[in-house]
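During the second half of the funding period, the structural biology subgroup turned its attention to how the target accommodates small molecules. The most pressing case was magnesium ion, which had performed well in the primary screen but for which no bound structure existed. We therefore specified the complex as follows and requested a full 3D prediction, including the ligand pose.
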Amino acid sequence: MSIIEAQGLHKAFDDGTVAVDGVDFEVAEGEVFGFLGRNGAGKTTTVRILTTLTRATSGRARVLGLDVDKHRSKVRDRIGLSLQQAALDPLMTGREHLELIGSLRRMGSARRTARIGELLTGFGLTEVADRLVATYTVGMRRRLDATLALLHAPQLLFLDEPTTGLDPQSRRALWDFVRGYRRDGGTVFLTTQYLDEADELCDRIAILDKGAVAVIDTPQDLKKGIGGKVLTLPVAPEARELAASAVGDAAVRLDDGVLRVDLPAGDDVLPSLLKRLADGGVPLSGVTVTDPTIEEVFIRLTGEGLERGKGNDANVGAAALARTVGTGRGGI
Ligand SMILES: Nc1ncnc2c1ncn2[C@@H]1O[C@H](COP(=O)(O)OP(=O)(O)O)[C@@H](O)[C@H]1O
Ligand SMILES: [Mg+2]
């Protein structure tokens, strides 16, 4: 059964911005569905439509079999939502947030207390539950926001970029939580701009580009569709030209200080490519050959990579900066 159905969703804002431009997809019960796209692709707007926070300009969406326009409060009662910008009050404690949301959700006090205790433990927040949110780290705020979304034990959870800005440990913890929630029968609609996250966590991924879905498939099949392997090496003088002379210019890209070469499927070009690089004086110590990643899929579909190292400028190499400036886009 489809737990979410979106047909031809379109959203234009008053200023003329078209955020969502004909989005179609279905999410099956029990899956983790990834909605992948760069900043401004329309992820949050889609989540806001599906969770009744905003109305689509045209198109239709059903969540848990309910039309989101006609059954707004029923939909809200039955879903959990953790937005990219968590609306937490710094002058309230974590527990006060949970108590407040519990009463807004009309949960009886015994059930509320039990559930709050369970979630605080599950998310490692028991010790800080009575501290003001103002003193919380980003990871703690994100975890508190997740407990708020889960308080009424919804069967469908929307997570909008749940790991953006999180340290690796909190990120892992969130992944574990999503896996556990799914194991217990829950369905997750998750937006992300992390390609590895989508690959690791999602049963299926929709790649969103400029407000429309470019492709939907399992991570495995998306990668299979790419064909050959990918060779990467640190950028060295001459390396690009040498690689291009072996495989053609279109198969070679600079990405964050790394040269990526798409190797044609089946065709054993690797030995001659390596020889050419070695003969040209390119050090081969940093060379790796891997199966294509979701990043490769993303680049081929949308013509451009997702900037990596978000929130960590030290990771953004000169090549990425040059590309950002060169394409006239505003960066990340
Ligand atoms: N309230 C709004 N008014 C005008 N434009 C908006 C509004 N909200 C979002 N947008 C624009 O819609 C596009 C999609 O935004 P959004 O759905 O937030 O993307 P994402 O979550 O993928 O980063 C962006 O160009 C954004 O600037
Ligand atoms: Mg967003």
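Two results from this model are relevant to the next phase. Residues 13, 15, 17, 19, 37, 39-45 surround adenosine-5'-diphosphate (ligand 1) (CB under 6 Å). The chain has a mean pLDDT of 86.
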